[in-house]
Design goal:
With 231 residues, this protein is of the alpha/beta class. It contains 9 helices and 6 strands; from the N terminus they run E-H-E-H-E-H-H-E-H-H-E-H-E-H-H. It has a 6-stranded parallel β-sheet, sandwiched between helices. GO terms for molecular function: ATP binding; nicotinamide-nucleotide adenylyltransferase activity; nicotinate-nucleotide adenylyltransferase activity.
């Protein structure tokens, strides 16, 4: 079984039950159902820096990181997943490619997997895990550089959780870069509805609606306690 580390980069504003479920679905699929069998060593959640200018509703990283920690601690099933504050602590926003290069160095040096001494670090794959909606942003003007997309897909690769209503296969086939590296894209054999998102959570809080079932109970309490997303 090929060792692999999964990393999810995003705002996690806030973390939802869907974010955690995505990791669990991926681990099961990669270890049990994928044509190439993997051993999933670690899941990494890397919250974006506060200076990410595309997110006007972004709350400070300290809150987002604390909510991730609380969510992860709700179940021992999450023991293999970690939140890492490297990206969030930087003085400026980082490109996803630079974040991946950092974690690749951490893996090869042994620092990231220090608790797994018997793993040959040079054999470990590092892949981005995300929803299908993220790869579709590759076509948004001025958001991604072609050279970054090419390096991300060729040197690392993606594990994609498809969403209802997303024609991801057609998108990949027609994309001028993704179509060249289809073998580096793993599509999970699980369709998820689009009805759970951080945006929906924020909008519900602002309206005073319930967010039970969208986030872990401890995250809901944290949002209430710190009066987040009210404006």
């Amino acid at each position: 079984m090929k060792p692999i580390v999964l990393i999810s980069c995003g705002s996690f504003n806030p973390i939802t039950v869907m974010h955690l479920n995505m990791f669990q679905v991926a681990k099961h699929f990669l270890e049990s159902e994928c044509r190439t069998k993997y051993r999933v060593l670690r899941g990494i959640i890397s919250p974006v820096n506060d200076r990410y200018s595309f997110k006007k509703t972004l709350i400070p990283a300290e809150h987002r990181i604390e909510m991730i920690k609380l969510a992860l601690n709700t179940s021992s099933d999450n023991d293999w997943i970690r939140v890492d504050d490297f990206e969030a602590k930087q003085e400026q926003w980082m490109r996803t490619l630079d974040v991946l290069k950092h974690f690749e160095r951490e893996i090869k040096s042994g620092d990231l997997l220090a608790d797994l001494p018997n793993v040959n670090k040079s054999e470990v794959d590092l892949r981005i895990i995300c929803g299908a909606d993220l790869i579709e942003t590759f076509s948004v003007p001025n958001l991604w550089k072609d050279e970054d997309i090419r390096e991300l897909i060729s040197n690392y690769g993606y594990v994609i959780l498809p969403r209802e209503g997303s024609n991801h296969e057609k998108y990949i086939e027609e994309h001028h870069i993704l179509s060249q590296y289809k073998d580096n894209i793993i599509i999970l054999n699980c369709w998820e509805k689009n009805d759970v998102s951080s945006t929906r959570v924020r909008e519900a809080v602002k309206k005073g609606d319930s967010i039970k079932g969208l986030v872990e109970d401890v995250v809901e309490e944290y949002i209430k306690q710190h009066r987040l997303y009210l404006t």
